[in-house]
Write a structure and sequence with these properties.
The chain is mainly β. The chain has helices spanning about 5-25, 25-30, and strands at about 35-40, 45-50, 50-55, 60-70, 80-85, 110-115, 125, 130-135, 135-140, 140, 145-150, 155-160, 160-165, 170, 180-185, 200-205. A 6-stranded mixed beta sheet has the order 3-16-15-5-8-6, with no helix packed on it. The protein has a 5-stranded antiparallel beta sheet with strand order 2-1-4-12-11, with no helix packed on it. Strands 7-13-14 form a 3-stranded mixed beta sheet, with no helix packed on it. A hairpin with a 2-residue loop joins strand 13 (about 160-165) and strand 14. The chain starts with 5 loop residues before the first helix and ends with a strand. The relative contact order is 0.21.
């Protein structure tokens, strides 16, 4: 039996090592982790890995997908996703990792908007002083769609079918809408502080 040449063995080892790294690195594969935000449209998921990200989407219905724990007010486990949306990109500068939520004008106490429908929000409201307070407890008490449940975490979805700002309803296809700016926050450890990995600043370019 012939011996494998050292150079050939070294090359094969590098190929195998890189393959293993790719399997363990979801970012390279475009897959999501449980701390990522996902923009979903037309059957495709656009994964937002970074703290600050820009995604281009069509001027039509889309949704935000993410993982969070179940909302459990009886045991004071208020696991929510706070979604603030704006026309003004400078509003994203008002929130940063390390801040107390109470110091953010649209995430502080009392700024959660009431939902208009039994199952959640019927449109994305663009306001500089408030946020969509979203959660999932069960099918009778929810403001999000449940996509999957592995016991520890839920995969949830927030639909955006229309917009509302300046006291006016807008369709997603409205020609004057060019971009949306979203601050997305999950206080995963419920400590009232915006920790690393809990905040996403998302710019949506509408084409």
């Amino acid at each position: 039996m012939k011996l494998v040449r050292p150079a050939l063995f070294f090359t094969a080892s590098l190929v195998l090592l890189n393959a293993c790294k790719a399997l363990n690195n979801p970012e390279k594969k475009g897959e999501s982790s449980t701390t990522d935000l996902i923009v979903f449209q037309d059957g495709k998921e656009f994964v937002v890995h970074k703290h600050v990200e820009t995604v281009k989407i069509g001027k039509k219905v889309f949704s935000l997908r993410f993982y969070n724990k179940r909302y459990d007010p009886e045991n004071k486990k208020l696991h929510t996703a706070r979604i603030a949306a704006f026309k003004d990109p400078l509003q994203l500068d008002k929130v940063n990792v390390g801040m107390s939520m109470s110091d953010v004008p649209y995430f502080s106490g009392g700024t959660g908007m009431a939902a208009n429908t039994y199952n959640g929000y019927d449109k994305l409201r663009l306001r500089n002083d408030a946020h969509h307070y979203t959660y999932y407890a069960n099918e009778d008490r929810k403001r999000l769609n449940l996509l999957a449940d592995d016991g520890a975490l839920l995969k949830l979805e927030f639909d955006v079918r229309a917009l509302y700002y300046d006291d006016t309803d807008y369709k997603m296809s409205d020609p004057q809408i060019k971009a949306l700016y979203i601050a997305f926050l999950i206080d995963r450890n419920l400590n009232g502080t915006i920790d690393e990995g809990e905040l996403k600043k998302l710019t949506l370019r509408l084409k």
